Amino acid sequence: MDADVVIVGAGPTGLVLACELHLAGARPIVLERLDRPTGLSKALGLLGRSVDSLERRGRLGHFQERAAVAFPTSAHFALIPLDAGKLDGLGLRGLFIQQAATEELLNEWARELGVEIRRGHEVTALHQDDDGVSVEVHGPQGPGQLRARYAVGCDGGTSVVRKAAGIEFPGIPPTFLLRLGDVTLEGDLTPQDIPDVRVPLIPLGAGYYRVIITEPYPADLDRDAPMTLDELRAAIRRANAGRDLPISGARWLSRFTDSSRQAARYRSGRVLIAGDAAHIHLPAGGPGLNTGLLDAFNLGWKLGATVAGWAPPALLDSYHSERHPEGERVLLHTRAQGTLMGAGADARVAALREVLGPLLQYREPLRHLLNLMYALDTRYDTGPADRHPLAGRWAPDLALTTPSGITSTAELLHPARGVLLDLTGTGALAGAAAGWKDRVNVVAADCPEPPAAALLIRPDGHVAWATDADTHPAEGLDQALAVWFGAPN
Ligand SMILES: Cc1cc2nc3c(=O)[nH]c(=O)nc-3n(C[C@H](O)[C@H](O)[C@H](O)COP(=O)(O)OP(=O)(O)OC[C@H]3O[C@@H](n4cnc5c(N)ncnc54)[C@H](O)[C@@H]3O)c2cc1C
């Protein structure tokens, strides 16, 4: 075998997955068709649990240093402003950071860990058998083949891996087209210098502005024809009462749509898919990166455990059963947003927006929507041990005092191992999980308002089991350890 896992695609999802697999003790190789990162950014922000997940690996500080602004309180639903600052305890955090910087920082993490990334390597086909996966790749030296135990397609919406694995991608076709340009303006003009401009210009820094024009999807569009500046200019004129914008140049021109699709299965034998390879949708509200990164954090430790040999048989399948419903939720709210702001929006849609706008200023609808959009209320099914209200939820961020000093939930998860957090105050669980000590750290700690007497936290930061009883042996703990961390030694 050339690697334990071949990851196809060094976008954000592939890079996080590679780091997580490395932390889990597996040897991944990442194959990326581009010779070098483009330096261009689809996403301009990172919002939701992916931000918290980076903190739980000790990487968030790097992102905060590069972020233009942290915007924890403002979001929108189909451009209807949402004020998250009204809500206590929501836990929504975000960073205004361009995707190119996000990818640079994830590449840096992978480099520090020593993950092998082969650039200029395009995967063209893939075949699996009982023992592994053979990947056909076209690299700088020409065609070749790689063999690995598993392959994961993180190769974006047009995923070759998904198609080669025969995974269906059902969904709905586009109804509108968005033409995007990252442009400069003539003579260092700013939007304030241009009277009556009806198209929004988002400042990107270094004199660049992002302009996006939405129109009904043209029946005769050739999607393979490269987008040109003339095409963008014509769309701007149509949207801007026949007037031009004084554009002097563009570093990126692209088209995208409201088409939304989701893979029917995230796993086919030894082949898995994650990120845009598994789900595409309108990038309304910016849920794409968040969802892809959370796929990677969910899959990394499970696939790592499978490669290491200690994973219970159902663990890898729980990647699909946990993440597919989360992808469905993203399609749900982005389709709704597309309906509310699409190019075909007429007086009926305008009326609906007018009714919805004030409703979304009330706390409970606001909380419901933000939980949905940023996966803040995700609850995975933790099976028979699922008795405590925290089971399956994102583990609470706690300030902890241990015999060796002050720490936090986030810091305890830096090594990407399981954590049994004993908050009984008596160290009652000191001897628990002894059979799992190569996979689970047991930490006794005090915290001001413990949310439970003990918590078993998975490497991806979700609670596998919790109890309010401070007795040992703790009911259901051994069972939960076996479900999520395999047989004891
Ligand atoms: C205009 C726009 C704005 C957006 N804004 C936001 C936002 O604000 N917030 C947000 O969260 N999301 C946003 N998104 C969505 C976000 O950009 C994507 O969800 C994200 O890039 C998905 O990451 P990924 O790693 O799964 O896939 P990708 O970023 O598509 O990466 C796939 C990688 O695989 C490589 N690859 C493909 N095929 C092969 C092959 N055969 N062999 C080898 N390598 C291959 C590609 O070169 C690429 O590097 C936006 C999207 C668009 C279009």
Number of strands: 26
Rg, alpha carbons: 24 Å
Shape: globular
Distance between the termini: 27 Å
Return the average pLDDT rounded to an integer.
Answer: 94
Supply the helix-strand structural class.
alpha+beta
Q: Predict the CATH topology of the largest domain.
A: FAD/NAD(P)-binding domain
Q: Roughly what percent helix? A: 25-40%
User: How many helices in DSSP terms?
Assistant: 12
Work out the strand percent.
25-35%
CATH superfamily of the largest domain: FAD/NAD(P)-binding domain
Cofactor: FAD
GO molecular function: monooxygenase activity
Organism: Streptacidiphilus cavernicola
Protein name: FAD-dependent monooxygenase
Describe the SSE topology.
Blueprint: E1 3-8, H1 12-23, E2 28-32, E3 46-47, H2 49-55, H3 60-66, E4 69-70, E5 74-77, E6 80-83, E7 94-96, H4 99-113, E8 116-119, E9 122-128, E10 133-139, E11 142-153, H5 160-164, E12 171-172, E13 176-185, E14 202-205, E15 208-216, H6 229-239, E16 247-257, E17 260-262, E18 267-268, E19 271-273, E20 279-280, H7 288-308, H8 317-341, H9 347-359, H10 363-374, E21 399-402, E22 405-408, H11 409-412, E23 418-422, E24 440-444, E25 454-457, E26 463-467, H12 477-485
Helix pairs in contact: 1-4, 1-7, 2-7, 7-8
Bound molecules: flavin-adenine dinucleotide.
Cofactor: FAD
Keywords: FAD, Flavoprotein, Monooxygenase, Oxidoreductase
Pfam family, one: FAD_binding_3
